[in-house]
């Protein structure tokens, strides 16, 4: 596709359930980012990938959060045993690779934990 | 580690007046700086970037930003604000000397409100 695609666009889950959020980056983009944005707040860095490896996982809030990327393409962010404080919009972005290139964002996945 | 500060949670300006949204940064090397805009219920859109060269960079929708190395700032400006410019603005930085050189760190955002 032409842009970064995230699915689902909306997810409502019960507390304690696991969820998987998917990101399809722009084809050829080697860098991929996950951010969390709580209602009315800024962007909280979670993790980023260079190719399939994640040099910096420091932003993951707890061991309930994990992410992987395969084939230098699709990435999945998994949240286990969801809690109400996990409710937020999860944004994915990708960039071509060289550090000077801008990142392009998807529309996000709105996660609501009830 | 790189960081970005946006000292103002909100900026209010009247339509037709110039606007400035402030951003300061901290990196170990020469920064790569970006501005993004987020309209309600929409994703982030890229506005402009500074990599090297002219300190004044021009971007989308008539916005520009000035890189000031001595003040470690990258303020976003527009000569004449429009009501439609009302949105949430984010400054971001990469530090190419950082081991994780692709890491893109955002500020907390500044809400711009342009009144008619």
What does this structure look like?
The complex is a heterodimer of chains A (114) and B (116). Chain A has strands at residues 5-7, 10-13, 19-24, 31-37, 44-50, 53-56, 65-69, 75-79, 88-95, 104-105, 109-113. With 114 residues, chain A is mainly beta. In chain A, strands 2, 4, 5, 6, 9, 10 and 11 form a seven-stranded mixed beta sheet that branches. In chain A, strands 1-3-8-7 form a four-stranded antiparallel beta sheet, with no helix packed on it. In chain A, a hairpin with a 6-residue loop joins strand 4 and strand 5 (44-50). Chain B has 116 residues and is an all-beta fold. In chain B, the strands form three sheets. In chain B, strands 2, 5, 6, 10, 11 and 12 form a six-stranded mixed beta sheet that branches. The radius of gyration of chain B is 14 Å and the shape is globular. The interface between A and B is medium-sized, with 24 and 24 residues.
List keywords for this structure.
heterodimer, A: mainly beta, seven-stranded mixed sheet, 11 strands, 0% helix, B: 116 residues, mainly beta, four-stranded antiparallel sheet
